[in-house]
Amino acid sequence: MNQANKGSKKGQDKKSNLGLTVTKEENFSEWFTQLIQKSELMDYSPVSGCYILRPRSYFIWEEIRTFLDAKIKADGVENCYFPMFIPESLLKKEEDHVEGFAPEVAWVETGGHTKLKERLAIRPTSETIMYDSYAKWIRSHNDLPLRLNQWCNIVRWEFKHCTPFIRLREFLWQEGHTVFATRTEAVDEAHKIVGFYVDTFKELLAVPLLTGKKSDKEKFAGAEFSLSIEALMPDGKALQAGTSHHLGQNFAKAFDIKFKDKDEKEEFAFQNSWGISIRSLGTMIMTHSDNKGLVLPPKVAKTQVVIVPLLFKHAKEEVLAAAEKLFAELKAAGIRVHLDSRESHSPGFKYNEWELKGVPIRLELGPRDLENKKVMMKVRDQDEKSSVLMADLLTAIPKELESMHERMYTKAKDNLESSIVKASSKEEVMAAVEEKKIALVPWCGSSESEIAFKEETGIQSLNAPFDQAELPAGTKCFLTGNKAVRWHLFGKSY
Ligand code: 87F
């Protein structure tokens, strides 16, 4: 059965099977698949590997976009948009970097009934089409730096098993492509962008990251070096959530991006490219959610507060009126609130539904509460309910949302930190990974050792943390026994 059918079949079960039927611990991938569909974040489309982002998840992407967009603009980056069709001749201009990716490129060969003279690639990334223009636009040092970004979709025809939000054939991302007169400026920017990504994940998604430099084998082939942000998922696998590449003059040479410096001397420019994608949502969902459903960081929750009135016959009108008043007050205060006054569903049913959808705060309002001028408040990540004076809600809610975010981040960070274990042999690394952890090892950095180890165990290098403790003199590489040159993280990866 293909994925599309699988999707609609699940949809048909809707009435009988609303909640999650497996736990995160017993079957992580089935838990994730059920979670994202049942919480109405996404749905399957007729094309395998291409998924529908429903309003609840698209909202999150919009928030990420707004936040990061403001940061990069404040730093001087400008947005632009390049066409999604790339002529074959242009895509092949930098064969070296495209070669390994060629099997994933999707092509347009006909327009209507007419075969095209030249095939058009659907952009798998935009280096080639953008740098073709950069070569025309950049003439002198006055044209630099040129720092452009685009928010767009990308197509990569994956043949591996696709997973919504994680590995997709069409996905949303931003790609920044910047050009500088000096290497120093470019290298500084590459690091600065990683900082922006870290802030975005922390401030919006409450996800802590491991930042560092990729190994030679894992870096982007067109880059001099690649920096990455990695997150640790509850199944013990790392997820690369974004990259920032310093391209040196590699692409400038291939695309002839030259400028005249102050002394009229011609020089190749220095470049970077960087991106994060809709994968960021997958990272966030996997990190925080539980066996009742989604747990959404309050800042990106489309609905932050749901009010559930307890509509007993004798006091229905009063309770409903009070709930509506409360709704209006919270809304006016800028809180994203929903009033669930459906009479077709019981309160218990509604509690489950809003927990499944990850709404951070639920307010229950019944006749007794009304008499006492109180509501019951349940915060999604806590077990206990509390009783709050209605008059205090406007101050209590923003505070609760803020502390929920803090708790989520702290919990994820504690988990991340306790999941990194130092290891000094292959066996220790394998044992750590077996326990769903990642290993920090002294490594010589050789690609051969990494390739052989991955072949044998499925374990790969993640990144070399920026924050490097000094290696004790004479420390040996955990794979080759040669001299180790740095600490590096190893683990299984998505
Ligand atoms: C697939 C097909 C063709 C990745 C591909 O990481 C080309 C490519 O160049 C390709 N998959 N890449 C590397 C992308 C590098 C870089 N581009 C800008 C990024 C961040 C944003």
Q: What would your notes on this structure say?
A:
The protein folds into three domains: 35-288, Bira Bifunctional Protein, Domain 2 (BirA Bifunctional Protein, domain 2); 303-397, Anticodon-binding domain (Rossmann fold, 3-Layer(aba) Sandwich); 420-491, Translation Initiation Factor IF3. It is built from 15 helices and 24 strands. The chain has helices at residues 3-12, 28-38, 55-74, 88-91, 95-98, 127-137, 183-203, 250-255, 279-288, 316-332, 347-356, 367-371, 393-418, 426-434, 447-457, and strands at 42-44, 51-53, 78-79, 85-87, 107-111, 114-122, 146-155, 170-180, 210-213, 225-232, 238-248, 258-260, 266-268, 270-277, 305-309, 337-339, 361-365, 374-379, 385-389, 420-422, 438-443, 460-461, 464-465, 486-491. The radius of gyration is 26 Å and the shape is globular. It starts with a helix and ends with a strand. Bound molecules: ligand 87F.
